[in-house]
């Protein structure tokens, strides 16, 4: 790499108008030579130079595009220098590396805990996947368990990518501790672990208890590729409840575990015990959307299902997908269509009774209906392909991986069904998805609470009289001081809670005791509220009606909003009297 960038460095230096400031320095003398210096000679000279001379050198070549490439090699060398292990041999390892920036990411992680030693550098320099190694080290660093011993375990691991995925999920579940790291690092099936843990995470049941149970020796059947393909990928996230997970654990202990597991899954897919098994603590985004997906599937079947030659339509779809170019995204879409049209792939939506195969055919027919599809055929086909790609690489996308990074981690069968429908949402009249979520409820809650607060205050305004004048004035004082709904929250809480529940109950599994919903309501006292102008105006008016202007001025001047906006002595009874109706 140095041989490629040195001519540009030399040219940038020679053309720079600042080089006169840089003459007679060790770096300038190297650049002035006719012969190209060795890479080690140049970088070691640069790193041993006075910081001011290094700054001058960078000023000279600032316009050179090679400065970035120079820094790619320089930064890991600086880490080695700070650790006291910058030698010609170590330099050669970095200079020869295909991507020194990945090396720098790893070295930075080792600096903070003080374990960047010659021995550890030798471990990482020989590692085949530094990007995954850097990600894994970052996770351990965040969990405060990055030690010399753990580094050795990671460096020796056969599949750092799958290890990183598993540790990432443990971090998301807040259970990335030393004991769990040791279990994951020593696990015999890291790929299966990386494929199964996302299901528990998505269903929000990845806890210390469920993780320990999953890795128990008598449940080993659940952590196989066969189990992922035939069990985990066939259970929708909203049905992977604590109760159903326990059923899977029990089935795994059976004499013929795979047959028993499949029996359990068939029962779940058929909707057996659906209402009882629903997990109210999980996000019901999937459940609420699934209901509207099912209704949309019925509408598509009514529009295009009779007649529908399923076999011919699937052949047509596969021919179209196979004819796409070989971009990474299109290659993933091709793998997806082969997987979800295979004989051993099966999912039927329990509400609409439409299968994934039927939905593919219906959706592909629908996007060709120019009267009812608002998108152009080209755009609609692009969305169809995008749905296949996102189904095939769903968890890869969630973990921030590009289209060519890591092995495919597809979403579950129910998620794939929903994904196809998601791409038709907004472009076809038959497809209308409803998103009812806790996040939506949280967003609407402050506005709804403030609306009810204004309505409540309006009733107080309309009831002002001589008998309650002082109590209303006190309420106004408390609202102004609190700048929140706390003084009146008890009076409006029930109405706010009822209206919010009527709209968002599905987001909480129709369980009014859901902890997230109750916590949201409890935060009503913190909702900001400063719009007391209507109450203030009415109070001033009523004061004017019942007292002399001088008395009114004295009474209203006690109110913090009025007093804070007026200089001392500014309240003139004549001015107030003129302002009153």
Secondary structure layout:
Elements: H1 2-15, H2 26-32, H3 39-48, H4 51-60, H5 66-83, H6 88-95, H7 100-111, H8 118-125, H9 130-142, H10 148-155, H11 160-172, H12 178-185, H13 190-202, H14 208-214, H15 225-230, H16 242-252, H17 257-269, H18 274-277, H19 285-304, H20 310-322, H21 328-340, H22 356-366, H23 377-392, H24 394-398, H25 413-422, H26 438-462, H27 469-482, H28 489-504, H29 515-522, H30 533-546, H31 549-557, H32 560-565, H33 573-579
Helix pairs in contact: 1-5, 5-6, 5-7, 7-9, 9-11, 11-12, 11-13, 16-17, 19-22, 19-25, 20-22, 21-23, 22-25, 23-25, 26-28, 26-30, 27-30, 30-31, 31-33
Q: Which short descriptors sum up this protein?
A:
64% helix, single chain, mainly alpha, 581 residues, disordered C terminus, 33 helices
Written account of the structure:
The structure is a single chain. It is built from 33 helices and no strands. Among the domains are: 285-422, no CATH class; 438-579, no CATH class. It is 64% helix and 0% strand. The radius of gyration is 34 Å and the shape is globular. The chain is mainly alpha-helical. The termini are far apart.
């Amino acid at each position: 790499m140095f041989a490629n960038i040195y001519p540009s460095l030399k040219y940038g230096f020679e053309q720079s108008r600042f080089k006169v400031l840089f003459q007679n320095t060790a770096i300038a003398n190297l650049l002035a030579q006719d012969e190209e210096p060795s890479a080690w000679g140049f970088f070691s000279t640069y790193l041993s130079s006075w910081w001011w001379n290094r700054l001058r050198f960078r000023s000279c070549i600032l316009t050179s595009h090679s400065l970035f490439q120079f820094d790619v090699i320089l930064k890991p060398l600086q880490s080695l220098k700070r650790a006291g292990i910058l030698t010609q041999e170590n330099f050669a390892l970095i200079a020869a590396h295909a991507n020194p920036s990945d090396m720098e990411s790893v070295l930075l992680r080792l600096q903070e805990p003080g374990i960047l030693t010659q021995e550890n550098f030798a471990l990482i320099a020989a590692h085949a996947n530094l990007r995954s190694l850097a990600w894994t080290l970052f996770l351990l660093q965040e969990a405060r368990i990055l030690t010399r011993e753990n580094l050795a375990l990671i460096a020796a691991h056969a599949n750092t990518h799958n290890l990183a995925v598993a540790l990432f999920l443990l971090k998301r579940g807040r259970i990335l501790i030393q004991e769990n790291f040791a279990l994951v690092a020593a696990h015999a099936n890291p790929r299966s672990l990386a494929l199964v843990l996302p299901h528990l995470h998505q269903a929000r049941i990845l806890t210390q208890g469920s993780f320990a149970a999953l890795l128990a020796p008598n449940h080993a059947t659940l952590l196989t590729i066969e189990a992922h393909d035939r069990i985990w990928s066939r259970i929708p996230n909203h049905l992977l409840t604590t109760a159903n997970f326990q059923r899977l654990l029990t089935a795994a202990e059976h004499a013929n575990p795979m047959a028993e597991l499949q029996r359990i899954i068939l029962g779940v897919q058929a909707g057996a015990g659906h209402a009882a098994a629903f997990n109210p603590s999980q996000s019901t985004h999937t459940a609420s959307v699934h209901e509207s997906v099912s209704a949309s599937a019925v509408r598509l079947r009514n529009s295009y299902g009779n007649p529908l030659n399923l076999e011919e339509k699937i052949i047509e779809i596969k021919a179209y997908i196979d004819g796409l170019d070989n971009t990474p995204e299109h290659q993933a879409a091709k793998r997806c269509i082969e997987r979800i049209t295979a004989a051993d792939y099966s999912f039927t939506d329990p509400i609409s009774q439409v299968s994934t195969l039927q939905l593919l055919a219906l959706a592909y027919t629908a996007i060709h209906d120019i009267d009812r599809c608002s998108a152009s055929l080209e755009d609609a086909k692009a969305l169809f392909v995008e749905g296949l790609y996102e189904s095939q690489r769903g968890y890869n996308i969630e973990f921030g991986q590009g289209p060519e990074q890591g092995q495919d981690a597809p979403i579950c069968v129910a998620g794939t069904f929903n994904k196809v429908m998601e791409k038709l949402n907004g472009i076809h009249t038959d497809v209308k998805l409803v998103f009812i979520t806790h996040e939506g409820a949280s967003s609407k809650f402050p506005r709804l609470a403030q609306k009810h607060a204004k309505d409540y205050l309006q009733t107080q305004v309309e009831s002002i009289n001589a008998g309650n004048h002082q109590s209303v004035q006190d309420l106004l004082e408390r609202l102004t001081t609190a700048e929140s709904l706390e003084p009146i929250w008890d009076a409006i809480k029930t109405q706010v809670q009822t209206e919010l529940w009527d709209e968002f109950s599905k987001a909480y599994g129709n369980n009014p005791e859901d902890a997230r919903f109750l916590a949201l309501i409890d935060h009503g006292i913190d909702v900001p509220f400063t719009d007391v102008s209507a109450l203030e105006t009415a109070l001033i008016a009523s004061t004017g009606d019942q007292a002399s202007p001088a008395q009114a001025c004295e009474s209203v001047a006690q109110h913090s909003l009025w007093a804070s906006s007026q200089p001392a002595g500014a309240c003139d009874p004549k001015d107030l009297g003129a302002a009153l109706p």
